[in-house]
Design goal:
- This protein is an alpha/beta fold.
- It folds into two domains: 86 residues, Rossmann fold (3-Layer(aba) Sandwich); 122 residues, Rossmann fold (3-Layer(aba) Sandwich).
- 40% of the residues lie in helices and 16% in strands.
- It contains ten helices and eleven strands.
- Strands 1-11-8-7-5-6 form a six-stranded parallel beta sheet. A three-stranded parallel beta sheet has the order 3-2-4, with helices on both faces. Strands 9-10 form a two-stranded antiparallel sheet.
- Helix 6 packs across helix 7.
- The chain starts with a strand and ends in a 7-residue tail after the last helix.
- The structure holds NADPH dihydro-nicotinamide-adenine-dinucleotide phosphate (NDP).
- NADPH dihydro-nicotinamide-adenine-dinucleotide phosphate binds next to helix 10.
- Belongs to the tetrahydrofolate dehydrogenase/cyclohydrolase family.
- Catalyzes the oxidation of 5,10-methylenetetrahydrofolate to 5,10-methenyltetrahydrofolate and then the hydrolysis of 5,10-methenyltetrahydrofolate to 10-formyltetrahydrofolate.
- It catalyses: (6R)-5,10-methenyltetrahydrofolate + H2O = (6R)-10-formyltetrahydrofolate + H(+); (6R)-5,10-methylene-5,6,7,8-tetrahydrofolate + NADP(+) = (6R)-5,10-methenyltetrahydrofolate + NADPH.
Amino acid sequence: MSAEIIDGKASAARLRARIAEDVRALAARGITPGLAVVLVGEDPASEVYVRSKGRMTREVGMTSFEHRLPADTPEDALLALIAQLNADPAVNGILVQLPLPRHMDEAAVINAIAPEKDVDGFHVINAGRLATGQTAMVPCTPLGCLMLLRDRLGPLAGKRAVVIGRSNIVGKPMAQLLLRDSATVTIAHSRTADLPALCREAEILIAAVGRPFFVQGDWIRPGATVIDVGINRTEDGLVGDVDFVAARQRAGAITPVPGGVGPMTIACLLANTLTAAARTHGLPDPE
Ligand code: NDP
């Protein structure tokens, strides 16, 4: 039996349509949410992301502010721009596209963003808030994965989840979100012993490793829900971290790459910007 394909593209389109509706409702109150994206340097992959973020921001009726700085911009100049965006009431969300050039201190730059405008959810305050169960801005990729999981599985309480990867932007917040939903969570990484056996216990398996075809078909517990976060550029195009063809024979449901987690990430960025705008105006969080 072949797994159901989780259509992230369709889910993301539905989410964006809901956001566009909420943006129209805010417009009736004279509020237009704004997202500022800052790109330093000319990394081609970042260029693509920034362009599609800008386009989708405009498509849902928000204002997109795009700031492009040369690769040799001093860190102080970037911090000054962030301070200006922090103070600008038209800007509800600020995203500094990573990676930054090597001469910059990524943590210092991210932590300069006002936490309530940190729509990537990478600020140390937001990471701490998520970890301690307080209202936070949640990183977009894990938030998108959580939505796909809830759509497919309903309540996640008691489910056994394995997250492969412990980065601050995917693995750790993913584990926090699953824990918040009362799943039983194990975080695996490069030092984990007998990863295949651990994966075989997982009803929910999240792969955020960054290595093509890393997760083998026979690591999948029959019927498991598999979320492949990986985006790996190979000669054959974009592939995930999971051996999709083999995994599909055992999983109950699986996200494809492309067309799975990726589109949800950008939609969640817009959702976070909407949430930030609502909170600024003392309105309840959108659904
Ligand atoms: P990082 O490189 O920061 O983290 C990778 C993680 O994988 C690390 O925790 C590392 O462990 C672990 N790992 C590496 N090798 C092994 C191994 N042999 N066995 C077990 N664990 C291993 O990557 P990111 O978290 O930033 O991204 C992960 C993937 O997700 C990438 O392909 C990236 O492109 C993609 N991505 C996709 C997004 C989307 O929108 N779909 C958004 C963000 C990322 P250790 O800590 O021990 O080194």
